[in-house]
Design goal:
Elements: H1 10-17, E1 22-27, H2 33-47, E2 52-57, H3 60-67, H4 74-77, H5 79-83, E3 87-90, E4 95-98, E5 103-108, E6 125-129, H6 136-143, E7 163-168, H7 175-183, E8 191-193, E9 202-208, H8 214-219, H9 223-228, H10 233-241, E10 261-262, E11 272-278, E12 285-292, E13 298-299, E14 305-306, E15 313-324, E16 327-328, H11 333-349, E17 361-362, H12 377-383, E18 389-390, H13 397-412, E19 422-425, H14 429-434, E20 440-441, E21 444-448, H15 455-465
Parallel strand pairs: 1-7, 1-9, 2-5, 2-6, 6-7, 10-19, 15-19, 17-18
Antiparallel strand pairs: 3-4, 4-5, 8-9, 11-12, 12-15, 13-14, 15-16, 20-21
Helix pairs in contact: 11-12, 13-15
């Protein structure tokens, strides 16, 4: 049998030989993710008869160009085996079949509903190329297809399968769940036993940078210079260093700064206080409580004085209804309303707010009468004591809202703001985590990617687009 050239570099070898069974490999551009996928799948298929490897990318065109074309593609790597008749490539059914019954299935999953095509699949190895391009729901579903069935695993590979290997750079609609699920849970290279509700596998993040791929550095020594010349500092950090604390080319990362995060302080009685809301059931809902400054000076913890420009918005509380990244609590509208009221009473009783907020803007979809005879979400919440005003959904409001938010963030970043800014109290952790890494829509750079975790962004946008409804605040009785 002919020999194949399947060499791996040191960091790629670390991933290939790892005892972890759920691995995220990558970070920076040029770390050798795709080559690792191809070599690993070929090696495993050659040594484990009957192994079924499923390689996913969101779009099939991208999958084909990345893995089936070029000097290190499957076709090139498997050339001697193809010529010898040991491997056959079926392009009509999109799989690569080995002499021992093992297969590499070339798959795509552009939409969440596409996962149903793999409902009956028995996946032994799941490879997810550009993992942040997928939703957490798609990933969990496909991971749920992992099972050995009747596969006989040789002793040398026992315990390695079933197995997941994902590769990606920072950014994309799935940035938050990938970062939270792999990058943030433990130090790099540490192996974590996940609980059964998270799949029960041994999870590991293996960071890979450009200097972990000496072949690319040798063949294209100017590649790093081109990355450094991308222009956007955040984009350079993401692509060159694999920095997960920003998102490459995001909607807000270039205007976000630590200056928009302020300590928690008691809101003055003269400030206008309301709330905004983005509904979600299967997806998260987001409630934000806002104070609009009137020029009154406040004393921050530690004694510093601060007088935000009149009209500045300060987010002074949040409730993000999620049980996992981009997965909602499936609470009823009445229960959400009750939770809102309970939190508002506590904020007043603790002195955090001087009085109960007035109704603010919510997603207009809550008023949709989609089922005749069944109360709307708005009606159910109103019956439970929580009222909302309409949000601005006029033509162009999505793009206008993004630009208005960007303008306010620019003001917040200045030493001496001249116009109203926007600020977030430091305990509002969800919105502080999500906004800086919110990606733009690849098809429309003037809008955000609505497939990303954008629920608290929508809540913020509704408030930024809103107008103050009253000019004089009168405390509401509890």
């Amino acid at each position: 049998m002919a020999e194949l050239d399947l060499a791996l570099h040191a960091k790629q070898t670390t991933a290939f030989e790892s005892t972890a069974t759920e691995i995220l490999y990558g970070g920076a551009a040029g770390g050798g993710k795709s080559h690792l996928f191809r070599v690993a799948s070929i090696m495993w298929c050659a040594n484990v008869p009957g192994l079924q490897v499923y390689l996913f990318r969101r779009l099939f065109d991208d999958l084909y160009k990345n893995h089936m074309e070029g000097p290190t593609s499957f076709l090139a790597l498997l050339g001697p085996f193809i010529e010898g008749g040991y491997v056959k490539i079926n392009l009509s059914k999109n799989f690569i079949e080995f002499w021992n019954g093992s297969k590499i299935h070339l798959c795509h999953c552009q939409h969440e509903k596409d996962v149903l095509k793999y409902q009956g699949a028995e996946i032994h190895v799941l490879l997810m190329d550009e993992l942040t391009h997928f939703s957490a729901k798609v990933y969990r579903y496909l991971r749920g297809r992992l099972r050995l069935g009747g596969l006989k695993v040789p002793d040398a590979f026992r315990g390695m399968f079933p197995r997941v290997l994902g590769g990606t750079n920072p950014g994309g609609p799935g940035h938050n769940w990938v970062k939270g699920g792999f990058v943030d849970i433990a130090p790099p290279l540490a192996i974590t036993q996940m609980p059964k509700e998270e799949g029960g596998l041994l999870r590991q993040y293996i960071p890979a940078r450009l200097d972990d791929n000496p072949t690319l550095l040798e063949n294209d020594p100017n590649y790093a210079d081109r990355l450094a010349g991308l222009g956007n500092a955040a984009l350079v950090r993401a692509m060159l260093n694999g920095d997960w604390n920003i998102v490459a080319g995001g909607a807000l990362d270039d205007v976000w700064s630590d200056r928009c995060i302020v300590p928690r302080f008691p809101v003055p009685p003269s400030w206008y206080i309301d709330r905004s809301f983005d509904w979600g059931s299967a997806k998260p809902f987001s409630v934000g409580w806002w104070a609009e400054a009137d020029g009154t000076e406040v004393i921050l913890p530690g004694g510093a004085k601060w007088a935000p420009v009149r009209g500045s918005l300060i987010m002074c509380g949040e409730w993000y209804g999620a049980k996992a990244p981009n997965e909602g609590l499936k609470m009823s509208p009445r229960d959400v309303a009750k939770g809102i009221k309970e939190r508002e009473v506590k904020m007043v009783e603790s002195g955090h707010l001087p009085n109960l907020p007035v109704p603010g803007p919510a997603d207009n979809a809550i008023a949709a009468d989609t089922h005749p005879g069944v109360p709307t979400i708005e009606k159910e919440m109103l019956d439970a004591g929580v009222k909302w005003t309409e949000s601005n959904k006029k033509p162009g409001s999505r793009k206008n809202g993004l630009e208005l938010l960007r303008s306010r963030l620019r003001e917040s970043a200045k030493d001496a703001p001249e116009s109203p800014g926007i600020y977030f109290m430091e305990h509002c952790r969800s919105v502080i985590s999500h906004l800086p890494v919110l990606p733009r829509d690849e098809r429309d750079q003037d809008d955000v990617d609505s497939s990303a975790e954008d629920h608290d962004y929508d809540m913020v946008r509704y408030r930024v687009l809103g107008v103050k409804r009253i000019t004089e605040v009168k405390p509401l009785r509890m």
